[in-house]
Amino acid sequence: MTAFAWVPFMQPLPGVQANWLWLLPVLIFGIAMMYKAVRVVDLANYWREVGSMTIQILLAFLGLATGVFIIVQWIVPLLPAG
């Protein structure tokens, strides 16, 4: 008799493989909240700082993804084989 159908740390979470990218903004928002909770000087600006950091990190990821896409799709095929 099995107690659970899903065992954490032993099996991947079912149904997440196709939609894992949508979890990235939530993760970034949580990291920004924790980081700014320690670093912000005035709590009156806390949520603005968290939103700003979240957007900055998302834009950095977008820029890195675009750069890697350009390298892999356009530059690597131009290199000589062998």
Overview of the molecule:
The structure is a single chain. The protein is mainly alpha-helical. It has a domain at 23-78. Helices cover 56% and strands 0% of the residues. It has two helices and no strands. It has helices at 24-39, 46-75. The longest helix is centred in the last third of the chain and has 30 residues, at 46-75. The mean pLDDT is 90.
Shape descriptor reads flat
- Structural class designation: mainly alpha
- Major pleated sheet: none
Query: What share of residues is helical?
Result: 55-70%
The N- and C-terminal alpha carbons lie at a distance of: 56 Å
Q: Strand fraction band?
A: under 5%
Supply the number of helical segments. 2
Low-confidence stretches: none
Work out the number of β strands.
Answer: 0
Rg, Cα atoms, Å:
20 Å
Q: What is the helix/strand order?
A: HH
- Overall average pLDDT: 90
In short:
The chain is mainly alpha-helical and 82 residues long. The protein has helices spanning 24-39, 46-75. The protein has a domain at 23-78.
Secondary-structure topology with pairs:
Layout: H1 24-39, H2 46-75
Helix pairs in contact: 1-2
Tags for this entry?
mainly alpha; 2 helices; 82 residues; single chain
